[in-house]
Design a protein that fits this description.
homodimer; mainly beta; Ubiquitin-like (UB roll); four-stranded mixed beta sheet; two-stranded antiparallel sheet; histidine biosynthesis (chains A, B)
Chain lengths: ~130, ~130
């Protein structure tokens, strides 16, 4: 019954990285971590569930923000150690900063070979309004 | 000059995961690891360079296979601990199995709540022909 979970190569902490990608556009929203329980619940319920390393507990994405993820497809890479979720992001905001995607920092190179990270996407909603303190 | 490299939150091994995504279609090809040197060289040369954890050395993608990655954009997530590369995959094969993408295993759920990983993509080139032994 759970052979498919046994096939995943969990790391020393029992985790694998999981990419959440827009099922429609291919845009990458975020990368978070999953333990076995998170992946099982994601597959069973069709909602994005992760393991919060900072809070050290199961994190049902959207439980505070309402920004739930509906998962239409679950993929695994060739080494069995990275999960890819095709999702629909409710509310259109995946990032805790209130932006659509977590990947809003783009490297801008200068002619001297240096560079800096430029913020490319607007804050759609104030995080204070997303998360009740 | 290298402030942008200092901004990255390298893990205890000095690594971060890096996603390689098709710049044109949004398809995710692979996830590999980068150390500081790999990211610096990727930005400087515009070629995908990673850190091979199995071989414990710098891995210039395509050095054996010819399947070089041309990098058009480098992004960093909100936690500064995941890199996203927008790339063009030369040869159209990113995976060491000879497939286009490493994410060729798709979860197929059955009615009893179990599931199994189904291979969805064909091998485009025999790995024995890609890598000289």
């Amino acid at each position: 019954m759970s052979d498919w979970l046994d096939a995943v190569k969990w790391d020393a902490q029992g985790l694998v990285p999981a990419i959440a990608q827009d099922a429609a556009s291919g845009e990458i929203f975020m990368v978070a971590w999953m333990n076995r329980e998170a992946l099982e619940e994601t597959a069973r319920t069709g909602r994005g569930v992760y393991w919060s390393r900072s809070r050290n507990k199961l994190w049902r994405k959207g439980e505070e923000s309402g920004h739930v993820q509906t998962v239409s497809e679950i993929r695994l890479d060739c080494d069995n150690d990275v999960v890819l979720l095709k999702i629909e992001q409710l509310g259109g905001i995946a990032c805790h900063t209130g932006r659509r995607s977590c990947f809003f920092q783009k490297l801008d190179r200068d002619s001297q070979g240096g560079g800096h990270w430029v913020t490319t996407s607007p804050v759609l909603k104030n995080p204070d309004e997303i998360y009740r303190k």
